[in-house]
Here is the input.
Amino acid sequence: MKKLVSVTLVLCMMLSLAACGSSSNVEGTAKKGVLVMATNAEFPPYEYHEGDDIVGIDAEIAAAIAQRLGCELKIEDIAFDSIIPAVVSGKADIGLAGMTVTEDRKKSVDFSDSYASSSQVVIVKEDSGITGLGDLGADSVVGVQTGTTGDIYCSDDDSIGTVERYNKGMEAVQALTQGKLDAVVIDSEPAKVFVSENPGLVILDESYTDEQYAAAIRKDNAALLNNVNQALAELKADGTLDAIVAKYISAE
Ligand code: ARG
Here is the structure.
């Protein structure tokens, strides 16, 4: 009996190790049964600081995935443009950061199935007179968070004058309130949070692009990709994902 128990224990451990980690990463995080998530916790309601904790939709999704994989979750808060490098180098197992699936990023990492849709929106001052993207002329100065899709689209948009890059979306929004910018381009849900916290700002009706969020996983880690997709499918099917989203985003 004792033997059976220990064999079962060893089997369980092996299974959970396989679930957490990758074949290429057995010596690292996987061995410890830890799922390391890289994020940038400046992005409410997806990830942000609450006291000493990092909370939000992505943090809870990651916790639910880790639980299903039998791993402990460890969250690393880093610059947004360091997340893909962290995943590629194996420092992190998963990048979960309201990260938009793009063809360019797909060259470096694999993406899980999508768990949310979003769009890039434009925040302006209430009295700016700017009513649409067409009003952002050649003299305009637009703020973005470095390395985000907002940054990429604005930098590619010849109708915009100058793109100012900030480490945090919130810093761009503050620069807008101080009159240093004409607009900020950022994801729709953080935009709503930032506008609610900074009086005098509005979000234009016209949105810039539609996007899908997914988890970034190292390319040679098909086992983890499969496990994450399976966990996501379960979270969608049993209502957990909807419940997490509803906790942070009130239905309009
Ligand atoms: N969705 C945008 C992108 O993928 C912005 C994501 C920013 N996320 C963050 N945690 N700061 O580029």
About this structure: The pocket of arginine is lined by residues 39-40, 42-43, 47, 80, 97-100, 145, 148-149, 187 (CB under 6 Å). The two ends are 57 Å apart (CA to CA). The longest helix spans residues 2-20.
